[in-house]
Specification:
binds S-adenosylmethionine; 12 helices; 296 residues; DNA polymerase, domain 1; Rossmann fold
Amino acid sequence: MDEHVPVLLDDVLALLAVRPGGLYVDGTLGLGGHSSAILAAGGRLLATDRDAYAIARARERLGAERPGADAELHHAPFSRLPAILGGRLADGILLDLGVSSPQLDRPERGFSFRADGPVDFRMDPSAGEPASAWLDRVSEAELVRVLFEFGEERHARRVARALLAARPLRGTLHLAEVVAGVVPRDGRIHPATRTFQALRIVTNDELGELDRALQSLPGCLAPGGRLVVISFHSLEDRRVKDRFRDLAGANAPRDLYGHPLVAPAYRLVERRARKGESDPNPRARSARLRALERLP
Ligand SMILES: C[S@@+](CC[C@H](N)C(=O)[O-])C[C@H]1O[C@@H](n2cnc3c(N)ncnc32)[C@H](O)[C@@H]1O
């Protein structure tokens, strides 16, 4: 199992079908694994990441692996892609959602319950506020909602009470310890996993970002271009599925014979989410991939 192989790389490349000279967008550059493969196939690259550290590392990697390649990298959330593209149409767009291993592995970023760090959780530490500031002022009802909706935490009420009583939280290990004190251990998963997921999602407005991207990015595709999205939990996958089905005409008004009254402008390429059970990257086991194509 290799964490450095980009997740579902073969599927992504087959779906993007990179055409030399075509313009491909990677909204979640990360370590630049997928982007490097796009450049290797002869594509021109425009990439974003909201993490300046990821941009710097990927710039170094792509410079070393693909010297002279046509790569435009922007420190920005992917919801800003339409403005960054400024009317250019993309032959393919990729979103590989979630956090990268350097974000999880560097304790100072505050994503980890394995090593101590500040309760931060921001993918972009230069914008917004750390999770600790939000936790300092949140009401119990709002914290319960976030833990339940974004973490799918069955013990949301108990966790919320314990967290509020433990404020100020000293760091990620203290946070994990407080949660572990009130949530029974369930198999191999750390009891704080769902709380950490919920705090990460709310701190980065991850679902709002995804919704804005799903609204605007299909319109940034050139005819025949594809939007490929890899997600890691059902909250994300459900949004991708519903939006793609809608754009492909699943809910369009139909005539008496069942034909859509207006021909849809998109089609589903992957009709079902593809799962990466046999992928060399262990993250792929919980990955779900969907793709949409803009019709000519
Ligand atoms: C799973 S990693 C991507 C890994 C990458 N595909 C590779 O091959 O190395 C996800 C990256 O997306 C970034 N990210 C997550 N949400 C984002 C958003 N809304 N806008 C821009 N970047 C985002 C994170 O900072 C992280 O670096």
